[in-house]
Structure formats: C-alpha cells, structure tokens
Design a protein that fits this description.
metal-binding; DNA binding; 15 helices; ubl conjugation pathway; Ubiquitin-like (UB roll); 5 domains; transferase; 803 residues; nine-stranded mixed beta sheet; alpha+beta
Length: 803
C-alpha cells in the first residue's frame, strides 16, 4: 500500500510506499522524515480535516490507497505565549456594572404612577405614557417613562434598549443581538420623526428650538414597556420616544402622502402584527365596505422602507403624535392598541399550556424567570424540567438544550486520539488474537471508485470493457464493475443467479481448456479468524453462491444430483476473469494480473468427491462470446489494435520505482514480475481499431438534431475504439447527479438533464437550467428525448436497469 504526502502549501508531493493499513502514525512519521527530512516533532499530519495522532493506525483514519495526507511543518521554536487578560473576568465585571446601573436607573423616584413629575430636563415628564421605537425592527411599543437623566460626559447615548426582547416577540422577525444597535449608522437615528417644537411642550423652556435639540441629545429617558415588564427599565434616546398615540383617524380623514401609524405583520400580512409608521400611497374605495389602503412602511432610516404594503385593519389607523401634545398618564386611561399575539398557537392565552411560547417540556407559563432559552432552537425550558434539573440559572452567556448541545465526550479535539468505533470493534480483525499484519494486501485498501454505468446485478459484458482488458489487482476489477467482490470467487445472489466469477486455480482438480473449463464451487473451508484461504474440512452445499451459479444453467434446480442444461446457450451469461494465480494449472491464465476473458454459460453442474476427500460441486462452463478469446491469434491481434496492456493503480509504478531503487535485487511480486518502472514511460499506444456504428445508430444520431453539436464532438473519438464509450459518458453526463443521463430532457439551451433531476429542481422552485442557469420558466414542458435514450441504451446496454 502507498499514499501521497503533500506539504500544506501544495508545493511538494511525495509517495510513501511499503505501508500497511495497520501502520502506526509514529511509523509513518519516520518514513516521512526520510523523504522530507523533517523530524517527527515538527510534523503535523492531516487527513480529511482530522489531525493524525500517534498511537492510531491508518486503518483508524480510513486512509485509502493513494490518498493524500497533508504535512504541516512546525517551526523550530514556537513563539512565546503572550499574557492576555482574562476575558471571562472582564465580562463578569462588565455584567456587574451593567446590572448595578440598571438597578439604579430602574428605581422610580416616586411611588405614585398617576402623577406627572417634571424632572426639570427633557421634553417628557416622569410617569408620562409614551410610544418607544425598537430600532432593531422599527416598530413602536407602548411604554411609560420611569426616570429622566443626563448622560455622563463621554458616554454615547444608547440607540436601542439594553435589554432586548426575545426573538419570539417579533412575530418571527428576529431582533438584533443585545448591544448591536449601538453600532448602527447614525443617519438611522437622525432620520426619525421631525421633532421640531410646534407648541408648548410638557417640560419645555423658553429657549430656542436649536438649543433644545442640542440639550435633549444628552438626555436619557428610562422607560419600561407595558407589555414586556420582564425587560425591566431600558434607556432610550429622544428620537425614539414620542407621545402616546390616542387619535383614531376615519377613512375620510386620510389623504395620499399623509404619515400615520398602522398595524402590519411582516411575515404574514393577513394577520395582526406590530405598529409601524407608514406613508399612505393609494386610497381605493369601490363601495361602502370595499376599501383598500396601501402604504410604505417606514422603519426609521432613510432607506429602511418597505413599499406597497396592504393594510388590513382600516378602523385602527392612528395619528402620529408630535412633541408638544398633551401629556397622558395612567389616570387618563390605558390608551392600549391591539397587537398581534405573541404566540400563534395559544394566542397568548395565559391559562392554556403551550410548548411553543413557554416551556417545551411541560408547556406551563409559570416561573418565567426560571426559564432558559436555547441559543440554537430558541425553545424555552424550565430549569427544573431539564434532565438532570438545574438548581440555578447558569452564568454562561450561551446555553444549549440537551437536544442541541454537542456531546463533548464525542468531539475529537486537536491532539486527542480517536474515539472507539463500535463498527470497527465488531470486525474480525479487532476480535482475533492473531498479531499478523493483515493490512498489506490490496484487497484491504478498498475501492477508490465504483462502477455506476451498470448496476451490480447486471448480466453480460460491461460497456467499454473489451475482452482482453487486464488489471494488476482484483480491486481494480471491482472498480471496473466486471467482478465486484474483492476476494470472493463468485459474485451473485442465491435467488437470482451469478453475474461473474474468477478462475484463479484455487482447487487442484480444476481443468481449464480455454473455451470451456470445470469450476469448483465455494465453501467447505475453515475461514475463521479473518482467513482468506484454509484447508478443506467439510462438504460443500448447493447454497449461497453455489446456488446462484447453478441458477444460470438452463435447467430446473436440483440440489441433490445436479442438472444439465437443455440448451446451454439459453442460460444466463457469466463474466469470467482469469487470474495469474491460475498459471500453475492452466496455460490460458495471464502471466500478470487479472484478465477479462468474455462471456461463458453454465452447461451442467454436479456433486462429486474431490481430491480433498470432501464433497464439492463442479460446474462446466463453455464460452459464448462474439469477441475472440485473448489467447487466439485473432484475440492477440485485436488486443494489439486496441492498445490493451496491464492497468496499474495510480501511483503504483512510482512506488515500485522508488522501491526498486532501494532494493536493486527486489523479489518479484506474487503472481507476476515487478513492472520495469525504472524505465522511462512509453509513448501512448496508437489504437488502430475504430468503434463501429450500425446503420440504425447512424440514422438516430442524424435524427437527434437538438444534440448535433455534442454528437459532432463525440464522432471525433470513434477512432479511439472502446474509449469512445468513455467519451460518450463524459459528454452525456447529467450535471446534477454526475451520472450518465437517464430519460434525458434536452433543454432549449442544448443541455441534457435527467428527467427526475429536473423535476427535483422544479420542486425546489428552481426553474433554471442546472448547467447554464438559463431561465426555463415555471410552466416548462419536460419532453423526453427518446432518440437519445434509444442510443444510450444501445451503447450502454443495461445501464437503465439500475436507475
């Protein structure tokens, strides 16, 4: 096994060979030291975002064949740690100062709530009923002034409440985080209502308007919301405070261009929401009861406008009160406006339980001061409803419920070892007491890609794989889709049949005559302890893969005496791969690797006592393929014309070259010679055989005018022989699923997409071409390109079966 190690800057990549799946990370560091000349202490290794730590193996990190491991080289001397102040202590002290100032400002100077008290400064009196704007959403809420103070020198007057309302107060429109409003653009605060002095104010002196404005900018109004007493006393600027709205305007009093206060819901305009300033745009009245009012919602800033909003509650349009209006107190009445319910589920009924606006465990609305709000799901929890319950409210700024909180015991931090995997703990390699290093075999590295051109239960040849194709290792045969199992000799299903088999000479009494051979079934060996091969110790039975291969015979199944095919050509086809391991019993086996030899059919099968002394099942298979066998003169000539040679995994030749430099007298690998990788790479073999198109296929290509440009590009690759199909697969690949297009829809922009992929895109309300974003329209008619589908079925027979 070998991997690629690349520096973190990507400038240098080297191959590290002679590894095993069980290689320790500390051993890997030593090999990297020999190549990069970096000590293990300076190495930080990363694989798929994880830092690799000593004590683990490549198998623990699922490192595959030819995968890339990144190397970060530490500096020789780490920089000294800088002394930083404790942010937690700073937050704690800041929090205490805020709490103390809040407590001081929240203390009302008088116990009377009905008497207006002139503080001597500012435009409003203590206990006066006002409207206050939340700058985070631009809505106005009823409030009462608790105190009026001057801002200390150098202090910035806050632009929004210090205690923000929870997100659920905003009808689904989340507020900004606490304190975020202090950094908003000053133009937003200076473009509110025109608070010029039009008359005698409740506490206005005889100074000029300019002097009043300069003076009021330094005044802080401490207010308390009527509907949100849990927020306590908050500080507001003059621009966000005005007298309480009290006058309801009739329809005949409304005029285009007038600014009024209306109720509007940002998310669901048909329902009741919050109160906003608005400018009337249109007034339409077709009858006494049929009226329509459209406004522009003003959120406070010059650009904070939501246009063309239809007002639902025409009987609740309030006049905007300006500074100088008659002051109101609780003795004059409540002057309450109707607002949308805080919860759409319980309609803010205090007597009904609700798991959406209250504790999501018990649904109770009691003990609101003992509820915690999850910062992830925004659900509330009583501290005594948690499991386990909490005694007090935690001091942490962020809190997560048990469902949203990440289990810290499962999180692998940098420098920590991996957690034990239950899946790997159950593997035979983990339970065995053997100390054998099983991780060096190529069957253990796993597939780096998978064949998707045909399904796994495909009978017959795989498109694009001609007879005579040879791979160095069995795992490559699996990647090509010719024979899927890495180790097993038979691939099939006991209720369907067998799709392929490998003839590797595993039994000494097998006979290979080229065009036909006898094959011995599987089973009868002791493979306990993760063994690959073992001695015969019991009889074989016609079950599992043996039964699957017997189903390919054109005869009723007989699990006692076997059966002989009535017409052997009518049986199900089996792809046969010969391995170089079979050279010891057959001259037809390849000298190196694994070779695809074409399609065979099962002639008959029978039980008999083998040389091992136990009952085995024999199968007689006979070749039935139009392509010539690779050992015949015709087959050898075709292999030469197609330029077929042994296919090696990526990086294999480089790894063997480095190994041969270290070991000049390297022993040949099992089953074949080490390739002469030290020689310069040979030039690309010219393919002499072109891909032949039938007359029907040529006519269909001419009929597919929508894809003329693509077909012209594909026809240029006919001289590539079987590689023409690989080019076809690239040209007609669906951009969504990255597979060969199925039930193709050829768009007006000449792109081919699977019908199911395009339908999925339309269900997601994406009505553009997935390839070029050309607008197809919501009502686009998906007409399947049947001509292209017929051609793809002929070029890639069986590919649509798995789709």
């Amino acid at each position: 096994m070998w991997i690629q190690v690349r520096t973190i800057d990507g400038k240098e990549t080297r191959t590290v060979e002679d590894l095993s799946r069980l290689t320790k990370i500390e051993s890997l560091r030593l090999k990297i030291q020999e190549i990069f000349h970096v000590t293990p202490q300076q190495q930080r290794l990363f694989y798929r975002g994880k830092q690799m730590e000593d004590g683990q193996t490549l198998f623990d990190y699922n490192v595959g064949l030819n995968d890339i491991v990144q190397l970060l080289i530490r500096s020789q001397t780490d920089p000294p740690d800088t002394l930083l102040s404790d942010p937690k202590s700073e937050k704690t002290s800041t929090k205490k100062n805020n709490e103390s100032s809040s407590i001081t400002s929240s203390t009302p100077p008088t116990s009377s709530r009905t008497t207006l008290i002139n503080p001597g400064i500012g435009m409003y009196k203590i206990n006066e009923l006002v409207d206050c704007r939340d700058v985070s959403i631009g809505a106005w809420f009823e409030a009462c002034i608790e105190n009026v103070t001057l801002a200390p020198k150098g202090q910035i007057v806050p632009t929004k409440p210090r205690v923000g309302r929870p997100p659920k107060r905003t009808n689904g429109k989340l507020e900004a985080e606490q304190g975020q409003g202090q950094t908003m653009d000053s133009n937003r605060n200076n473009s509110g209502l025109n608070l010029e002095s039009n008359g005698a104010s409740t506490s206005q002196t005889d100074s000029t308007a300019a002097e009043i404005k300069n003076k009021d900018e330094d005044i802080i109004y401490h207010i308390k919301y009527d509907d949100y007493p849990e927020n306590g006393v908050v500080e507001m600027k003059l621009v966000d405070v005005r007298p309480r709205a009290r006058t309801v305007l009739r329809w005949d009093q409304l005029q285009v261009g007038m600014r009024v206060m209306v109720n509007y819901n940002m998310e669901t305009p048909d329902e009741r929401g919050f109160w906003y300033d608005a400018e009337i745009v249109t007034l339409n009245q077709t009858s006494r009861t049929n009226k329509e009012l459209r406004v522009n919602i003003l959120l406070g800033g010059p650009g904070d406008v939501i246009g063309d909003c239809k007002v639902q509650f025409l009987d609740e349009i309030y006049q905007m009160e300006t500074a100088g209006a008659h002051p109101l107190s609780s003795a004059d009445g409540q002057f309450k406006r109707k607002s949308g319910p805080e919860c759409k589920h319980c309609k803010a009924d205090p007597d009904s339980e609700c798991r959406f606006c209250s504790c999501c465990v018990c649904g109770g609305k009691q003990d609101a001061h003992m509820q915690l709000l999850c910062d992830e799901c925004n659900m509330a929890f009583h501290i005594y409803c948690l499991n386990p319950p909490l005694a007090t409210i935690p001091d942490d700024e962020d809190w997560y419920c048990p469902t949203c909180k990440n289990d810290t015991s499962e999180v692998v931090k940098a420098g920590e070892k991996l957690k034990a995997s239950k899946k790997k703990a159950k593997m035979p390699s983990a339970t065995t007491e053997s100390q054998r290093d099983w991780g060096k075999g190529m069957a253990c590295v796993g597939r780096t890609k998978e064949c998707t051109i045909v399904p796994s239960n495909h009978y017959g040849p795989v498109p694009g794989v001609p007879v005579g194709t040879t791979w160095k290792f069995r795992v490559q045969v699996s990647e090509a889709g010719v024979h899927r199992p890495h180790v097993g000799g038979i691939h099939g299903r006991s209720n369907d049949g067998s799709y392929s088999l490998v003839l590797a000479g595993g039994f000494e009494d097998e006979v290979d005559r080229g065009d036909e051979f006898t094959y011995t079934g599987s089973g009868g060996r002791d493979l306990s302890g993760n063994k690959r091969i073992g001695e015969h110790c019991f009889d074989q039975t016609l079950t599992h893969m043996n039964r699957a291969l017997a189903l390919n015979c054109d005869a009723p199944l007989n699990d006692k005496d076997g059966a002989e095919s009535r017409n052997w050509r009518a049986g199900k086809p089996v792809r046969v791969v010969r391995s170089s391991k079979g050279r010891r019993i057959s001259k037809y086996a390849p000298e190196e690797g694994n070779r695809y030899d074409g399609i065979y059919k099962v002639v008959k099968y029978w039980p008999e006592i083998g040389k091992c002394g136990y009952l085995v099942w024999r199968y007689l298979l006979r070749r039935d393929d139009l392509e010539p066998a690779p050992w015949t003169p015709e087959g050898l000539e075709r292999i030469k014309k197609l330029g077929l040679s042994v296919q090696y995994p990526p990086g294999y030749l480089a790894a063997m070259s480095n190994k041969s430099k270290k070991e000049p007298c390297a022993r040949p690998g099992y089953g074949g010679q080490v390739p002469p990788a030290t020689e310069p790479p040979s030039k690309r073999v010219k393919i002499e055989e072109t891909f032949q198109l039938s007359e029907q296929q040529q006519q269909l290509i001419q009929d597919d005018t929508a894809n003329k440009k693509l077909w012209d590009e594909a026809m240029e690759n006919l001289k590539e022989g079987p590689n023409f199909l690989q080019k076809m697969e690239q040209i007609f690949m669906c951009v969504c699923c990255q597979e060969l297009v199925f039930q193709p829809i050829t768009t007006v922009c000449s792109h081919n997409v699977c019908k199911t992929c395009l339908q999925r895109s339309f269900r997601a309300q994406v009505y553009t071409c997935p390839a070029c974003r050309h607008d197809l329209g919501k009502d686009y008619v998906m007409n399947q390109n049947k001509t292209l589908q017929i051609l793809l079925d002929q070029f890639f027979p069986g590919y649509s079966k798995g789709r």
